[in-house]
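WARN no homologs supplied; continuing
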Amino acid sequence: MAPGFVSGHSHLSTSGSRGLGANCSLYAWADHMTRYTRHCDADDIYWVTMHGALDFLSNGTTTAYDFCDSRLSFYMVEAREMAYGPFKPKEYGFEQIRGKVDAGMRFINSIMINDQIGTDAEISDRFGESIAFADSLEKPDLHLSHAISGSVQWSSDPRTAHREVSIMRCYGVVNQPHFLETPENLEFQRSKFAWYEEAGALGPDLIFGHFIHPTEEMKCKCASCNVAMIWQPNANGRLGSGFADIPGMLAKGMRIGIGLDDQAASDISDPWQNMRMGLYMQRAHNQNPEILSVEQMLWLHTMGSANALGIGDRVGSLEVGKYADFLLVDPRAPDLGPVWSPIATYVLAVGPRNLKEVYVGGSCVSRDGISTNPLAARASHELHARLARIAAEQNLPVGM
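OK structure emitted
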């Protein structure tokens, strides 16, 4: 028995976009990855999100920080110029919340403030509408909190950071920006650190997603201000984004968690692969097998993520008073040999094939990799049918 994994950085609406942009870096990959889903309506995105949540659950991740697909779709044209689609109705955001609730997953619902649209008051009110909708579903045990998907990485306006901070303070929420994820346009991206600093964002409610390319000064400042970061080993490697200095940031005292990121960037929602990828890359890069231990890796993908997100009082470990979210793993089916060290075997040798049952709140949600959710079969059917419809309607390639 082990605690359910906590993914500190996830995009559940990308479950139907795996394998796209297979040999691309971040911006070019984003063009490919959103090729189909940018045309989804509210009904489509409900099923796409549910499919992603059920996939996470069946692979042992019971809690996810989920970056909802933006109501204002955006993408890079030929990896150079930002382009925007239409501003979708509020139901587009609401149905992503409903999809996660109906899947039975615990989640933090993270949304972009889309400050290109509306006045400051309208932007704030939209955020409040999303919280009100989640509250109306009366599932506080699943909807753990709301959050901001920080968009300074994509913005050309320093006021974006100030608007995000204003909403953080008004609604008492955390903010996780994708930040310093890619070596592309690195010096310009680094210059935006000052936007958050000047806006007063640096503090325990700010969590940098990726944070692969900070300067030493940035690391020290974040550590001193109790800023957290979330590490995505699989996705960083898949996109060639770079190598995060996890041992260095841990030594400085930063709070660090791990995320599975996009199902279109990690491709397999396998937290054990994510741990091993991170562990092996760190050890190889530092030429030191002691740079990170198996105990640290397991902690980072459970309690590390929970603490970084501010939900460590409810998830991340098996303790009295926390939710009963746990996994049952059998190292004898298939047989991994004698278990000389339970944690080492769990981190280094176990995988989804050994995962027998997944529990959320003491109820079995997956058995032998198959969801027990009565909507699971329909979610799979709807995902395939709806994305095939979009491909046909938009005259997009299929099977490439």
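The longest helix spans residues 376-393.
OK
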